[in-house]
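Bench notes, afternoon.
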Amino acid sequence: MGHRVEGRRVSLLPFHRRRDGVHVGLGEEERALIAELSGQLVALLEGRDESDPAVSRLLPPGYADDDEANAEFRRLTVDDLTAGKIRNAEMVRESLASADPKAPLTPEAEQAWLRSLTDLRLTLASRLGLTDGGFAPGATDDRAMLENVYEWLGFVQESLVRAVDR
């Protein structure tokens, strides 16, 4: 699906598949927002403050009821898991800053986008106190904006899943 703007076809979806692969159809402001959020995710992961609920959500315990097993699990996995999440976020940023924005995403970049969008949504969900019952109460303009960003990232992610799945 697309529309014509100033003689060229533009997509209304964040991602779309063409014969040569999956393409990013985000506008400049949307690209800048995801690049900024990805940079913040990298900083969060590099700082890895274990007391931060968002870090706990991104790097969950392997064993909820066994502190000793969980400590060993974390010792063996947390560095690689963190590095992978950072790599994914950086790949998203690189694809957004690509010298050729018309080039399709590589299969590796598609997976990095999917994983990183999940991490961004997990981080926002943690910040917003999202539970099975919905968002925690507390209406402010900033909070409403973050809730909208969370929902929009879900739309972006769904668009990418559909484009990859075609």
